[in-house]
Amino acid sequence: MTRPTIATVGELRASGHLQKTLRVEIRDNLLAALREGRDPWPGLHGFETTVIPQLERALIAGHDIVLLGERGQGKTRLLRTMSGLLDEWSPVIEGSELGEHPYEPIVTGSQRRAAELGDDLPVAWRSRDERYFEKLATPDTSVADLIGDVDPMKVAEGRSLGDPETIHFGLIPRSHRGIVAINELPDLAERIQVAMLNVMEERDIQIRGYVLRLPLDVLVMASANPEDYTNRGRIITPLKDRFGAEIRTHYPTELDDEVAVIRQEAELVASVPDYLVEILARFTRALRASSAVDQRSGVSARFAIAGAETIAAAALHRATRQGEDAAVARPVDLETAVDVLGGKIEFESGEEGREDEILDHLLRTATAETVRAHFRGLDFTPLVDAVERGIMITTGEQVTARDFLTGLPVLGESELYDQICDRLGAGSGAEVNDGQRAGAIELALEGLYLSRKISKESGGGETIYG
Q1: Shortest CA distance to 288 belongs to which of 300, 306, 275?
Q2: Sorting pLDDT into bands at 50, 70 and 90, what band is 456?
Q3: Are 242 and 263 within one domain?
Q4: Rounded-to-integer distance, Cα 45 and Cα 81, Å
Q5: Are residues 244 and 267 in the same domain?
Q6: Which domain-ending residue is among 219, 248, 277?
Q7: So which domain of life are we looking at (predicted)?
């Protein structure tokens, strides 16, 4: 839909435009989406039966909302999808500092212009994205940033301190008729949180000793880590009481949702097969269940996302150095991810010195689970027999897919290699390349090692199965 061409309040009235409060607008658009079967929450996975129903009920009720959850649970993404519930275009008084509706000017300057110009009051149009405002709460955030302060330049022009037009408004008043999202709310100093109390309930702006009553139409949303995790601050009780809904977020409960999040968020520079993403998802879930990991800090979804990006980078690095036509990640690249991701995990104090051991163990567990899920029922006897006859199979982060495939033992009439590749979607076909086939067979070899059917030695950038 293109930007409307209506340019004055007179034209706006003639068009039959009706003014809605922000909460009614959001409620109507949400209910319309639900009636039509449209998903109002694109890109969110694993919240369908838990967080989303609670959020929708809170919005229908018209409540301000705080989202509580550990890091990397999608709180910010959820906040940013809120703009999709606003009208695509909304009229404002042109040049208005607060974006007031042309039918309802609320600051002195806009009221004066409306009285002077009447139906000729100029109208501008704001898109829904321009009505969503976001602020990362930091300890140095001031009352002036959020609420406002006296503008010394306006005072210097000759206005008195008691003149409402001397005020430079902060983020929340400027979000009038829009959504303001405050990330990491407990990081705000308590005195700054106090300044928000009247804005959220009585809609007063209190600055420098005088009160300016403005009928602000703002939906306040916030995110926070649970108080038992963050030591940086807390949400003061009176402010928490002013949020109509407190909703707990969570990590994906289903493996498919975990995989979907990685696929959606990771920016990959090379091809990463689905089974490798699955291993990373299982690895992340194992870390969240491990007693060796500090679960109060959580294991962010960004851990697995960064892991996928790292193994893609390893594949591109190998392809560039070795002259491969296609950059495809293989199981051997998983070790490169663990090397750089360990710092993203907070371990329990008693596990000091065992961090690498824990990560390696859980990665092996995740790999074994993936192998069982995809290769159940396959008979690997021909490959095991070939290795037991003394054949060594070499791979590594700088061994090309072609070299790896060339070094595989001949299995006679067995079609085991084709069966392995078929199970992982790397069977015959024009789109299948050496990297995909090599990765599939490499996973099978790792599965045989983890089930103690063959041995493995690693070192110097090479891995030898024998």
Answers
A1: 300
A2: confident
A3: no
A4: 13
A5: no
A6: 248
A7: Bacteria
What pLDDT is recorded for position 21? 94
Checking phi first, is residue 29 left (phi over 0); if not, alpha (psi -120 to 50) or beta? alpha
The number of CA neighbours under 13 Å toward the Cβ of 38 is 9
Domain span at residue 217 reads 9-248
Whether residue 155 is found in the same domain as residue 54:
yes
- Does 304 share its domain with 424? yes
- Nearest alpha carbon to residue 375 among 426, 433, 443: 443
Residues 259, 224 share a domain: no
Alpha helices in 122-161 (DSSP H): 143-146, 152-156
- Look up residue 75 and give its two tokens: 């709180």
Residue 57: CATH number of its domain: 3.40.50.300
Within 10 Å of residue 300's Cβ, how many Cβ atoms? 18
Per the document, the length of the chain is 466
Same domain, 354 and 235: no
Distance CA 181, CA 385 (A): 62
| φ, ψ of residue 463 in degrees (nearest 5) | -125, 125
The token duo for 4 is: 């409307």
Helix, strand or coil, per DSSP, at residue 197? helix
β-bridge mates for residue 212, sequence order: 205
Q: Which amino acid is at 309?
A: E
- Least Cα distance to 331 among 419, 435, 429, 425 occurs for 435
Do 173 and 127 have their domain in common? yes
Q: How many angstroms separate the Cα of 251 from the Cα of each of 47, 136, 464?
A: 9, 22, 37
Which range has the top average pLDDT, 84-98, 219-233, 428-442? 84-98
Domain end call among 248, 273, 301: 248
Question: Strand (E) positions, 9-137?
Answer: 65-68, 89-93, 123-127, 132-136
Cβ contacts of 104 within 8 Å, gap of 6 or more: 19, 215
| pTM confidence score | 0.87
pLDDT band at 437 (very low <50, low <70, confident <90, very high): very high
Task: Give tens-digit pLDDT for 377-426.
Answer: 999 998 889 888 888 998 988 889 899 889 898 887 778 988 999 988 87
Task: Give me the amino acid identity at 335.
Answer: E
How far apart are the C-alpha atoms of 179 and 83, rounded to whole Å?
8
Task: Give the separation between CA 309 and CA 339, rounded to whole angstroms.
Answer: 13
Structure tokens at 39: 């998903």
Same domain flag for 215 and 332: no
